[in-house]
Hints:
It is globular and about 65 Å long. The protein has helices at 15-26, 43-46, 61-71, 74-78, 96-112, 122-128, 150-163, 206-212, 278-291, 341-354, and strands spanning 6-11, 31-34, 50-51, 85-86, 89-93, 118-120, 138-142, 146-147, 167-169, 174-180, 183-188, 191-200, 220-229, 239-242, 248-251, 257-260, 264-268, 273-275, 300-305, 308-310, 317-320, 327-331. It has 2 domains: 5-64 and 150-217 and 312-377, FAD/NAD(P)-binding domain (3-Layer(bba) Sandwich); 88-144 and 221-310, D-Amino Acid Oxidase, subunit A, domain 2 (D-Amino Acid Oxidase, Chain A, domain 2). The protein has 10 helices and 22 strands. The chain is α+β, with helices and mostly antiparallel strands. Bound molecules: flavin-adenine dinucleotide. Flavin-adenine dinucleotide is lined by residues 11-17, 34-37, 41-44, 46-50, 173-174, 201-205, 224, 226, 248, 260, 306, 308, 331, 333, 335-339, 388.
Amino acid sequence: MANRTVDLVVIGGGIHGCSAALHAALRGLEVVVLEKDTVARHASGVNAGGVRRLGRDYPEVPISQRSMEIWHRIEELVDDDCGFQRAPQIKVAETEADFEALKARAAHLRAMGFEHEIVLERSELREHLPAVAEHCVGGLASLDDGFALPYQTTFAFQRKARSLGVRFEENCRARKVERVGADFRVSTDRGVFTSRKLLNCSGAWAGEIARQLGEYAPVAATAPMMLVTSRMPRFCTAVVGNETRPLSFKQMQNGTVVIGGGRRGRPNPETNASELIFSELRQTAATAIAVFPIMKGATIVRSWAGIEGRMPDGIPVISPSATEEGAYHAFGFSSHGFQLGPGVGEIMGELIATGRTNAPIAPFSITRFAPGADASGSSLTHAQGHSA
Ligand SMILES: Cc1cc2nc3c(=O)[nH]c(=O)nc-3n(C[C@H](O)[C@H](O)[C@H](O)COP(=O)(O)OP(=O)(O)OC[C@H]3O[C@@H](n4cnc5c(N)ncnc54)[C@H](O)[C@@H]3O)c2cc1C
């Protein structure tokens, strides 16, 4: 069955597809979202919920800042608080060398004009984290960051988008994408959809859609892992990372501790399965115990992994297509795209509706992977890869 031509087809019902659809609808576009499984089924539903500006790759800082402004008034946008809670995000230094690196980063950001990351000396670190291990020498904090509930958030974006007329087609995989005259034609198991504009928000699967548009995007499927403990007495109100060892650590209000931070299992994007690697999870637990000795003997009650798209340089593709006018991409968020969802959706809505944006998205161009392109894609210095 052929559908009538709409303004925009979005491929992918994660937070980025839902957010971009919402922002496009707010600008008056008629939008259809195609989701091969169900909305929020993948990374956007199962992530750690970290809403973090701290430690962003430098090119991401301005869009992360913009996204944070939206998070602080998220209920006004989606009529739902998304479970968002303000909390400091703190990166702990276990050695003097790590502390020096954190101080250098804060200085670099100040030179860029950003003041949100502040250095915490040893005693200040303990004011925020009374349970932190004795050997930790200092930290870097972004005090007005926080965390939110992933399913609640992604469904809130979907619900608001739907209330503005966006159509969601679930269990509807985009199999073939092609240009027919001025329009795009997307063939699915459940019919053909035609649109004037096309947005690829298909996460770990986005490389195939890009390929069909004639573009190379080496997005790899990865499987970041999480674990959660039984309830513990309250000892931590911040979200905690580590300068050198992968860690994302937070205690929920009910006392459970949610730990992740980048150690990865085995993804299988063909079957949607992801397999835990327990030797890696053990290292996550060891890092948590090293930073918070109170965690020794904690009971792990559950662990899981989600499938996430990762780019070789650890930053996403947020870009118009270089081959097909009217096509756009937002994918490859490399384990830190949840926080960016509200802001990148706003950027894509503007770009698609008006053809332009002032947002600094040049470093995220899909052309950085074209044969012969400078692999870094920009002259900006990237910080080391961070996740979650
Ligand atoms: C365990 C874990 C912890 C994380 N922790 C954090 C964190 O604390 N903070 C943070 O900021 N980020 C975190 N992330 C990263 C974050 O979850 C992702 O970057 C973000 O959710 C990506 O959103 P997305 O919409 O691009 O992708 P997805 O949520 O993967 O959505 C893409 C959707 O596209 C659909 N799709 C693919 N191909 C097709 C097709 N051909 N047709 C139709 N539909 C298609 C898929 O089924 C999928 O639902 C974490 C990720 C994981 C896995």
